[in-house]
Amino acid sequence: MRIVFMGTPDFAIPSLRILVDNGFDVVAVVTAPDRPSGRGQQLTPSPIKEFAVSRGLLVLQPEKLRDPEFLAALAATQPELAVVVAFRMLPEVVWKLPKKGTLNLHAALLPDYRGAAPLNWAVINGETKTGATTFFIDQQIDTGDILLKTEVTIPHEWTAGDLHDAMMEQGAELVLRTVKAIEAGTVSPQPQDELAFLHPAPKIFKEDCRIDWSKNAAALYNFVRGLSPYPTAWTTLNGKVLKIFKVTEGDETFEGKPGTLKLTGKNELWVRCGEGCLRIDNLQLEGKKRMDTAAFLLGHREELGHVE
After folding, report:
1. pLDDT in tens, 101-145
2. What is the mean pLDDT of the chain?
3. % of residues, the chain, pLDDT over 70
4. CA dist., res. 136 & res. 133, Å (int)
5. DSSP state, residue 33
6. Which listed site, 147, 212, 235, 245, has its alpha carbon 20 to 30 Å from 71?
7. ∠ CA 157-85-135 to the nearest 5 degrees?
8. How many CB atoms lie within 10 A of CB 68?
9. Angle at 196 between CA 110 and CA 119, to 5 degrees
């Protein structure tokens, strides 16, 4: 089959790589335009573009997906199938172009966790398993007919970053199985069961990441790891933003209002929650580098009181 691949971040690279390595004819790769990045604001290609160029693949980088020149270039590749992994919303004129349809990889077991941030929300909600789904794109977001699924276990200590890394590899295997099944005609698309849509997974904004210390320690443990390493849970210390990347549950207990900090003789920093306490292990104060708590305490031991 003649395949067009659409994706932008590093999450999509294993899926493109596995198709190329298995001999599929990837006739074009569609990704975001180069964007200014770093201190010098130099134009930087997306991770997918860098990989595609390294494999000698045709790269299309439309600013707008309805641009006539892009649509003409896309049609000229005569795609039979489009594969979408971590890309933006497609207009109908794009996803209807391939003869066999446009499939998308979603990092959840659809219809559950429809939305832009399924990995984060699965961890925040304390799920012990999730998965990936391939489906055909239709008019609505994440509602198309399901092709194949695979389950992924979430260990209690995993962050959203850990789940991301596992999911992009297992998701790539699922993409390969799906493309092979479409080519062989052995897959039967199934409508989604709307009754199984239990959790939304909307985009997460900065204010959504603020820690509410009145919640219990177990919920906040999941909240912090579900936002680590990005977009990162945060609080404030003496008026400065304090990002928290890692916390640990434990038996330490002390009195005080939620957000009260306590430094133990073991050089451990604990914070009082609405119920229970958490040990802060890895953090970043506004204007500083990310560091372990022991390094942080070398310069901020006298500033501790409470976080808000």
Report:
1. 999 999 999 999 999 999 999 999 999 999 999 999 998 889 999
2. 95
3. 99
4. 10
5. P
6. 147
7. 95
8. 8
9. 40
CA distances to 125, 159, 166, 290 from 246, in Å: 17, 9, 19, 11
Write the burial class of residue 254 (CB in 10 Å: 0-12 exposed, 13-18 middle, 19+ buried): exposed
Considering only CA atoms, which of 270, 244, 271, 267 is closest in space to residue 257?
Answer: 271
Q: Which residues of 103-128 are buried (b: 16+ CB within 10 A; e: fewer)?
A: bbbbbbbbbbbbbebbbbbbbbbebe
Q: Please report which residue ranges of 28-105 form alpha helices under DSSP H.
A: 47-54, 68-76, 92-95
Q: Residue 59: enclosing H or E segment and its boundaries?
A: strand 59-60
Q: Which amino acid is at 151?
A: E
Lowest mean pLDDT among 132-146, 236-250, 294-308: 294-308
pLDDT digits (tens, 9 = 90+) for 137-158: 998 889 999 999 999 999 999 9
Can you spell out the DSSP letters for 127-143? -SEEEEEEEE--SSTT-
Contact between 59 and 36 under an 8 Å Cβ cutoff? The reply is: no
| Owner of token pair 């320690």 | 217
Pairing of strands 261-263, 240-249: unpaired
Minimal CA–CA distance to 137: which of 192, 177, 184, 180? 192
Tokens of 63: 């600013």
Flag whether pLDDT at 255 surpasses 90: no
- Which residues are bridge partners to 234 per DSSP? 210, 243
* Residue 303: pLDDT over 90: no
Q: Residue 28: how many CB atoms within 10 A of its CB?
A: 20
Q: Are 102 and 84 in contact (CB under 8 A)?
A: yes
Q: Which helix (H) or strand (E) holds 285?
A: strand 277-285
Q: At CA 213, angle to CA 211 and CA 219, rounded to 5?
A: 80
pLDDT above 80 for 90:
yes
